[in-house]
Amino acid sequence: MSNSSSLPCLLLAAGRGERMRPLTDELPKPLLKIGNQSLLERHLISLSQASIKKVVINHAWLGEKIENALGDGSQFNLQIDYSREGTALETAGGIHKALDLLKPTDYVLVINGDVFCPNFPIASLLEQIPKLRANPAKPLAYLVMVPNPTQHPNGDFYLLEGSVQDISSPKAEKLTFSGIGIYHQGLFAHLKSGASAKLAPLLKEAMYKKQVLGEKYLGPWHDVGTPQRLQELNVTYAST
């Protein structure tokens, strides 16, 4: 794979969206709209603009509605396949199951379907791919970190000079994981096929081995977690 823009991308859309009820009783959370486009549509447009071609969307709750809304992706100049889970497999389990469809050479771009990150520079993120491939430490993940939002004040991991860590150290800044990351398929090699598995334990194990890198992103980023937050974003971005 010579061109990093031909990297496959997985959009995570299998969650039930409990905190978004009743909006998600009849609609999968990533199909909720900001302005005149759903969260998933916005991701797909951004991916297409970054010259990504192959996208897989995993789903469980009301997944057929996602397939009906987005089809094969041709309207976005993308090829979309669907990883059907039935029962959601958590993040790592979902990524592992989708690898058969993604067919990565090594790395895969993964984005949470329920984050809203207008104008996120996917193309510049993809510029990390050649660096990751050339890195003798064989990084297993590259995470986009953001300043801690009010609903998550304690953050997730520490960032120090491009290395993401689980343990505090002097000068390290604790940030929130944005839900946007690049993963090496080897991160999931030890998972059982079709089994539910969380991502954080795999990342922490890789962090211990200094195999997780990352960056701090200061552009607009929102975790669309509650109906109130969705309503506020619709006021702010109504015309987009």
UniProtKB/TrEMBL annotation:
Record has Nucleotidyltransferase as a keyword: yes
Gene Ontology terms, MF aspect: nucleotidyltransferase activity
TM regions (residue ranges): none
UniProt xrefs under Pfam families: NTP_transferase (PF00483)
InterPro entries with a match to the protein in the record: GlmU-like, MurU, NTP_transferase_dom, Nucleotide-diphossugar_trans
UniProt domain Nucleotidyl transferase: residue ranges: 10-238
Keywords, ordered alphabetically: Nucleotidyltransferase, Transferase
Protein name: Nucleotidyltransferase family protein
Source organism phylogeny: Bacteria, Pseudomonadati, Pseudomonadota, Betaproteobacteria, Burkholderiales
